[in-house]
Amino acid sequence: MTRVDPDSAFGRALDERRESLNGRVAIARRLTPRLEPAAVLEFIANTLGPIGEAVAVLDPQRTGEIVDRLLDVALPMLGRDLLGPGARTPLLNWGWERLLPAWPALVLEDPVRLARAISNALYNLGSQSETRPLEWLERMEAMGGAARHVSELLELGQLLAWRCGMAQYRRSALQIAARLPPERVGLALDLGLADAAARDAALARLAADPWDDPTVSASAPRALKLVAETGGFRGLGGPFVSPPTVELADGGFVVSDRAGCYTLSADRYGAAFLRTTPPATAPQTAAPAGLVASIARSLLGRKPIFSAPELGLSLSDEGVVSWGRQSLTVEALVGASSAAFDGRTLAITHPMSHQVFLVALAPAGAT
Amino acid sequence: MSSVGKVSQVPTNPRKEEQRHEFDVADLYRGPAGDVGAVAEGAQRDLAEKLRQAYFWIVNSAIISPFYDIEYEEGPSSTFKMGDAGVAVRLPSGQSYSSFCLLPLLNLVVRRRCLLVGGPGRGKTASAILMGILAGYSLRDLKRAIQHGQPQMTIADLLGNPLPGDLVNAKSMDEVRISWRKWLAMRVKIIDEYNRIPTRTQSALLTVMADNYAEMLDQIYECPEAAWYLTANDDAGGGTYQVIEALRDRIDVVVKALHFNTRFIGELLDRIEQGVQPEKFVPAEIIFTDAEIDALYKEIMAVRLPPEIRRRMEFFCSQFEFFEPAARQLEYMTKDTVKLSGVDYQQVASQETGKDRVKDIGGQTRNGVSVRALMTALVFVKAMARFRGNREVELEDVRQLLPFVLHDKLVPNLNSPFFEQHGNPALRVDRVSWLRALFDLSNEEYQRLDLDKNDPVAALQAQFAAGLDGLSEAETRARLVKIERLLSEMSSGKKFYGHMYDDVLHLKYLHQRYTNYARWLTWRG
Predict the structure, then answer these.
(1) Cβ contacts of residue B67 below 8 Å, gap of 6+?
(2) Which ranges of B288-393 does DSSP label H, i.e. alpha helix?
(3) pLDDT (tens digit, 9 = 90+) per residue, B199-229?
(4) Is A217 in CB contact (< 8 Å) with chain B?
(5) A188 touches chain B (CB under 8 A)
(6) Which of residues 320-339 of A touch B (CB under 8 A)?
(7) ipTM value greater than 0.90
(8) Which of A52, A164, B212, B472 has the highest count of CB atoms within 10 angstroms of its CB?
């Protein structure tokens, strides 16, 4: 445990507020018996200390007040092993240790809101599969210093959350991006955006097509690609206990296995499965039925798994996706169990796989 | 459960929300660390949610008041009968509240006058101080600003003193400056034991409470709108000095400090042993700025009072003023006429005949509901609705809040045979339950008369409200006939109850308006 220098600004603030801090901790311990005094002390020294010192450089008079308020936010999380030495995952600790000391002006502006937002964001990123919380942390660390206000920083965080795999937030993140300075949006999305017009054009492309790549010319040819394989077996970190099936409901994908239903949101930055209720018109297809149907098709005669003649789109039993003049053969899709199309993306499942395969037209040279 | 420093993280009034496929990135910042509020610059924080968080912090961490006497139901609930008298123990199925914690908080945001009553040492002053802290004042400033009622309190003690130098040197009263007391400028004002203030000083206090200004030696100090908290050991207006009626009448809501539940002595012990004083640890995020209170007040005023709820309030309030033996002239047949005459109420009441004195709700009171009380009731029921997160008042909001607003306003007629009925004697003492029972009886009568569907007076009122422009003489006369016919129906063989009184007066009013209009049409030619 780092020792607090009693002569430092933070050390003096702790001393002045000893009664207040002890009282807060005493109450918190009474209501959350698992809260260990040693853990609180370690947190104060190792985590609050650097934040306090950073704040003291800008406004030493308010150091004590800031410490008070941050401790108020931290204590309940310390008692629930979300923060501190007993934390189940290090994510929230990293957020407090790496981000808050780097933004003392923002901490001074609104310590409670900032600390809560960072904690909740890391918690949510860490709780959702297929996201990249560490990438979010690193990007925030790199970019957050340019924010002039907490609100700006939090909006950046929302944009980056989408960028780091929270695909369900695509629509609202794009709306936020439209308000942010072009250079910031460019850094967040790894796009070179010279001005607002470039930003708006890029965002418009992303809004229109989840698989578009604004770094590639809009007139570049598009190729039929397997743009993502997502999902997976629950035992290996995925959401599904059994091979799922997919359907379209209310304009979005709903993927169902034996245990439940999930909405699927996917784009070039990631894919998100989130629990939902079964759609009203859901045929309750489970993987075994899907397998039986697949075998039956092969015995009784092949029909396409999916067909939208008005679009020239189909998926055959042999794993061939045809879209207009293009076709794509994916061996893993031979004998697919179900497919659904949302206007941009064809989502396909297989009775022998826990994955959901996504096929779309994407810029030919895009990564 | 929450720590003193912790604001409730669970939804404070969880409502079932529809499953949605449209995701909002604002959800990124919702989680175990607590509410972050709106992200975008200029976006408004949910102030009703902040108010609820403040309430739950108070009940969980500050004031030990494990009572739920403001009961809401959301579906079936259980009731148990205890003891020989069958005391009803209700377990409400909806989120319910402690009046001692909730009403001072509502008073804070509507900036009215709250009287906290109860025996000594029950937390009345502590509760008032907490409200001041929630309004952003420091504990030190609040304690110094409390006005402590005591028999030697002078007007100068209360309001301030003229500057001695000015008194000596001034050539006229205009030149005398007053060193006004600091508490006058505060947006939370606490008067401790107001019934120990001498009568003369009470008058000076009345000016400040009623009109928001202080006056001394022809100098005026305009006070800002404030939430007032007065404490007293009894609510009967007694004490060292009788509280002047005008001052008592300015009280908007009366809250009883409930007893201490001994099952919580352990918590008291913890506080003593650890030296914990919750008023020193109020979380910053539940402290309201003046601007937030102003904004929340606007939200409260924007809460809709549905017409059918308003009609029930009107019907309830209409029961009480009418007093047939008080006069010969219709307009003077009120309990207020009796009071002003100085004649004994019981003596006049004994002349009343014919009505079912148990059924007649109006017979249970010695006065009616004043305009001031009505306005206060409207404000508080809207505040209650907003506190619960609603944009519209529900009937239960009215039912729960009215007793606290009318607590000192409607005086019971303790000789009414209603109080002799089985189970009712306790209502002589339990004013809140009595008022709630009154409201329930009124609603039953409202239902029985089917006034939601069958209200000819309302129909005529609406017709008149559409205006007289373009109304022909024939139509005017037809309406006059309609009014007379309705009065004839109302008068045929029925008892003249309180709720009919305002209707009859209204019909007379409409008749007079149409009559004048018809005369004008005739004169105009």
Answers:
(1) B98, B99, B100, B258, B261
(2) 290-301, 307-317, 335-341, 345-349, 371-387
(3) 999 999 999 999 999 998 888 999 999 999 9
(4) no
(5) no
(6) none
(7) no
(8) A52
